[in-house]
Amino acid sequence: MKQRDLLLVGTCIVIGFIYRLIPGTPHNFSPIAAMALVGGMYVNRKALAFMMPIIALFASDLILNNTINRVFFTEHTGTVFFADYMIWTYIAFILTVGLGILLFRQKSVSKILVGSLGASLLFFVLSNFGAWLTASIYPKTFAGLLLCFEAGIPFFQNTLMSNLLFVGIFVGSLELLTQRSVEPKIA
Length: 187
Known about the structure:
Blueprint: H1 2-21, H2 32-42, H3 46-64, H4 87-103, H5 109-134, H6 142-181
């Protein structure tokens, strides 16, 4: 199982890292949350499950924040290793691994759908709360928080669609591989 976990985690990190660097992908359409949810389901070594989305996110952020997104870091000199607002995104993905662990003791289609929706809502709430808290464009009032959530609604659709797609692909692939690795008994 140890080798399988390392192969799964490594493959997911590479997929998440590369996917985030593809130009023109829609905002919030990414396999990272799906990796976190599926990691909670399938990775036996839970420390690896928690590290998987964080490594993919950090590595791709390191490139994105110092190239395409560099215009947003005018106050930084040198390499941007971490952006303060991203802590909320990281927390959302860590909690999503936990959601995967809790929901998927017995895997079913309904639990996969609930997990995908839950991961999407978790990301939406935490990332928008973090944007409201750290960005100067929103007043630090309840009305400002609602305005921030309203501004995030168009991105929620992409988050949900990507979670449903990538969780489906990851779970389907893993279940297929699991079935193929079990040798049939010959009577």
